[in-house]
Amino acid sequence: MGLRYCETCKKAETEERTVSWQGEYYCIKCKTPTSDMGTETSEVSNTDTLNKYDETLSYADKMSLNNKAGSYTVIPTNEVKMACEDVLKRDPKNAKALFTLVQYFYAKDKRDMSKRYLDRLLELHPDWGDAQEFLAHKFPEDADGATMDAVVQDPEKLFRLASHFMSQDKYDDAKPLLEGLVLANSTHLDARKCLTEIYMSEGQYKEALTQLTILRTYDPEDPFLEYNVGIACMQSGDTSRARGSFEAAKKKSHDPDFIEEIDGLLGKLD
Question: Could you give all domains of the chain from N- to C-terminal order, each with its CATH number?
Fold first, then answer.
């Protein structure tokens, strides 16, 4: 039984439930080409491919089954479940088949089985973003321990997950991961920049200023850091410090458009 995987819809389907045209199999829902889960063993362990899946992942939680939120708008059928099990007999490390079974059993309200396949998937492919996010959303009681393990073992994997959450505007999910990162590694500047963005968006200007002050010690000539310090101070009512930061940003910048923007802000402080 042939099994195809649609990267756009994030689901597996049998060949009989796809559209065949000139040797290609297309997803019946989104009409994009599907991949052969039975022959692409090397693809699922490729880091670039995993990152590509991370970028396209979207958790809409639009489906409801027995009053339990599911992860996808389409539940894998029992036929797909059996096909995935067949794939795993030939390729026990196939991440696509494993993750399809994770969502299948969760949608069927068999959390223990879902978690069993999820643990297996994370053990084999710890940087598989789909599985990491599923763990954080559906098994939060286990996510904290996994997060701390990730901080110790590979901070960059955790940062990629936090960045993924931010790309989805899920700041509440990204924030604790980033705070854990800077606590474990004070020189992780990218994490501090992301935290600054979150704090600014939430109106936590004191916390944003703390991060900006630290960042400025590593790059004192960056005019954008000075500019953001000015914005944070202006929003928190410290107009004197805001003015000083805007003036410093002007001196450090050679971009006339940026300088003009700063002049406009200085005019509002008069």
Answer: 203-270 (1.25.40.10)
